[in-house]
């Protein structure tokens, strides 16, 4: 599903109305109906009976008047509060008000009409729309404060009041929503913090924008991942398959004190469906990793004895082992000893197997780049940095990366010479050198814990081994990783999640996605 800016959404509305002949009031009625349906779902969940609709002076308020009318028609108690006399509204918003008034919907004008929040179960926030900039002021600002102080759940119409729909900025007060019913397509600021934390559950209401109009929008092409699309990426498992059918992955990982990184990557790789996993580790770690994880095959290679890290002398053995694999994962816990850095510089151009690189693999590349040593790759490469790792790779500030994670992904992919960049964080973004920038919707801050990235590395390596193309392996891997984190957090709370909990929840995440198609069919 495409993600748009406010300007892009306005253009979609314009084309739909002016060129395709759909009445603006028709779009507004559809929008209001979508809000009403969402409100009913929330009210049923909380066993609520009464709604307070806050309607602003523009079309966002018009959507609120329609929702109020429809909810009253369904037998819910409905009150409306407006910051201006609704008789002064214009255009479609005034028509929406008049239709509600004709159905005897009750309203008060703030602040003269006192609003009793204690008598409602749900607030519907229709004060300011997606085009609003800056902090809410005047009567609207006061209504925002009252809504915040009430502690009641809120449903946002199109976008929470106080949140910039493009940047996600919150420059003053904002009404936190338990859900946001956004119209047509999701807005970019709804995936950017701090705004995302005010959005709650994001629901997209189809108001009838033609599909071809959406697809013909010019770049930038941002896409919010959907369960339906990701389900279609799951590798097919033939009933007569064997280990070879499901792919062999080689995990190049580990150093002194970092055996867990190797084993977590290996286990998540197997749990994600790979038929066979080989851990290529420094020879001094063999006993440790075999005691931690039994199911992977261990392949010892030459090490720097004092640090039990990969030695430059291991190059030949690693290449031989990697050539017999369908995919390679490189980096978890390998460290940045000078011999290991040298090994990585010599290994990458000769590595003829699709590869995912993370953690110290990226830090080794950053050290090589800092020495102005050109980096070449022998096959398709996916990298999975967090902003700090990408900062070291590109030699730019972390703040610049975080501020431009949607806009500059293609540029960074080209500069690094990789096939796919997975920029971890909130929200994780995935891109190749061209095509869409994909925005992942799963995951939470409980996943900000050591070892979480090793689990993701193993998942992507497994999907590469099962013959998914790199961009699809990255998209599906990130989604499953985030979903496993959501499942773990639902059980344990975000504060208590560790990487092993994400790994333990991975089978359930995969099963949930597999069952989706059965439920939808």
Topology:
Layout: E1 2-3, H1 6-19, H2 24-46, E2 50-55, H3 59-73, E3 77-82, H4 91-102, E4 106-109, E5 122-126, H5 138-150, E6 154-157, E7 179-183, H6 196-199, E8 201-205, H7 211-215, E9 222-224, H8 227-231, E10 248-252, H9 259-271, E11 276-282, H10 286-292, E12 297-301, E13 303-304, E14 309-310, H11 315-323, E15 327-330, H12 338-347, E16 355-357, H13 360-370, E17 381-383, H14 387-394, H15 398-403, H16 409-416, E18 420-423, E19 429-432, E20 437-439, H17 452-465, H18 470-492, H19 499-520
Parallel strand pairs: 2-3, 2-5, 3-4, 5-6, 6-7, 7-8, 9-20, 10-11, 10-15, 11-12, 15-16, 16-17, 17-18
Antiparallel strand pairs: 1-9, 13-14, 18-19, 19-20
Structural features, described:
The chain has 521 residues and is an alpha/beta fold. Helix 12 links the parallel strand 15 and strand 16 (355-357). The chain is built from 19 helices and 20 strands. The strands form 3 sheets. Strands 1-9-20-19-18-17-16-15-10-11-12 form an 11-stranded mixed β-sheet, with helices on both faces. It folds into 2 domains: 2-217, Rossmann fold, CATH 3.40.50.10260; 230-520, 3-Layer(aba) Sandwich (UDP-N-acetylmuramoyl-L-alanine:D-glutamate ligase).
